[in-house]
Design a protein that fits this description.
With 399 residues, this protein is mostly beta strands. The protein folds into three domains: 43-129, Immunoglobulin-like; 135-229, Immunoglobulin-like; 235-396, Sandwich (Jelly Rolls). Helix content is 9%, strand content 38%.
């Protein structure tokens, strides 16, 4: 049988066209014979974390038909509507979502036009929200145990802290001034010390630190409570305790100059003697001491002459009247340290600065509370059997 190929090709093409026409409109049954419209997408969507809340933000779509945005989270169980107030992509739309739990969320942003058409939406993932669990792990910034305080000639006190960690924002320091008023000053993260003007000696100093969990956080978190700095004992209560075996003073440098809040000469100077020798003082009140600081005589005497190199500290609440060590308890034996470890007579800038700030010595935990102090000098930096110093501070627990 002879086949007409041209006729066959024509028949196939006709059938194909008819078939295409039949199925090309089938999608309309699923779209209810309406055209699908997708509003424009937002850009640069992101978030700023907070305390049981979050701030979402994005640059709006330039599509002028958009009237609102829908925000959903918790797998769509929760939602919020945000009106489209601008269509300028250079603007930023921000919205705060409150009442969240401490959790990691995913949010979806969908744009709508007036006809109810919706965009495909965009997700903002891994949104961490902070709360009480995060807060309970926060600690107040540490103060400088070795050098907690420095006295200034104008009567103010400088309080020293260690470096804050990367999330530390600031630290509030609260104290009492000489008028009896409660004052607050604020230590910035980048600073390691702060001045307390007109500080009332012996009064409580407290501090509380604030943190930002993330750099972009809209909320800061405070440590739950204030901590107490060790108190600077009230030197206005101090008085010489002259017992029969105590060494005296020389050259007009009297014992009471050790607590006159003056770092200039004169201080206290003893006459020549043989080691060991000692002197005593009354702090005016019993205290649980945490440490003390000795300010050396400076200049040519620095780490030299009669500045103490090795000594003991003793405490008592009822000193023996004969000047003996009966009823005295040894608190500790201490050795002065020179940072550079250079020979006597050679001082570096580090040595000078360290001594000028006062050398701090810690008192071991568990030491008894005492009112009276006796310092027993065992050796000096030059080996000469006399002692001098400019100032003496004692620090106590807040009890």
């Amino acid at each position: 049988m002879k086949i007409n190929y041209k006729a066959l090709v024509l028949i196939v093409m006709v059938l194909a066209i008819v078939g295409c026409r039949k199925y090309s409109d089938d999608y309309k049954a699923f779209l209810d014979n309406r055209e699908v419209i997708y509003p424009g997408l937002v850009t640069n969507s992101n978030y700023n974390t907070g305390n049981l809340r979050v701030q979402l933000f994005w640059n709006p779509s330039p599509d002028p038909s958009i009237t609102k945005y829908s925000l959903t989270w918790n797998n769509g169980a929760d939602s919020m509507i945000v009106n489209a107030t601008t269509h300028d992509p250079k603007d930023t739309i921000k919205v705060i979502i409150p009442g969240l739990k401490e959790y990691v969320y995913s949010f979806k942003v969908v744009a709508f036009d007036a006809s109810g058409n919706r965009s495909v939406g965009q997700e903002i993932n891994n949104v961490r929200v902070y709360g009480p669990v995060y807060k309970t792990g926060l600690l107040n910034r540490s103060y400088n145990l070795v050098n907690p305080y420095e006295l200034n000639p104008d009567g103010s006190v400088k309080v020293n802290f260690l470096n804050g960690d990367s999330t530390n924002l600031s630290t509030t320091v609260k104290y009492t001034d000489n008028a009896g008023d409660i004052k607050e000053v604020h230590l910035k993260k980048r600073d390691n010390s702060i001045i307390l003007p007109n500080y009332k000696t012996g009064s409580l100093i407290q501090y509380q630190s604030y943190y930002l969990p993330q750099q972009n956080s809209i909320d800061s978190f405070a440590v739950a409570t204030f901590d107490d700095l060790p108190l600077l004992c009230n030197k206005s209560l101090f008085a010489p305790l002259r017992l029969p075996t105590d060494i005296g003073s020389a050259y007009g440098w009297e014992l009471q100059y050790l607590w006159d809040n003056n770092l200039n000469e004169p201080g206290f100077h003893t006459p020549g003697q043989t080691f060991p020798f000692w002197f005593s003082l009354d702090m005016g009140a019993q205290a649980s001491l945490t440490g003390f600081k000795i300010y050396q005589r400076m200049g040519g005497s620095l780490y030299n002459a009669g500045n103490a190199k090795k000594f003991e500290v003793w405490g008592s609440n009822s000193p023996a009247g004969d000047g003996s060590f009966d009823s005295w308890v040894k608190i500790g034996t201490y050795t002065s340290v020179k940072p550079s470890n250079k020979p006597v007579g050679e001082n570096t800038r580090e040595d000078i600065d360290f001594a000028a700030a006062g050398e701090y010595f810690a008192i071991p935990a568990g030491a008894p509370a005492v009112r009276y102090i006796r310092i027993k000098v065992l050796d000096t930096w030059s080996g000469s059997a006399y002692f001098h110093a400019l100032e003496l501070n004692f620090y106590k627990q807040n009890k």
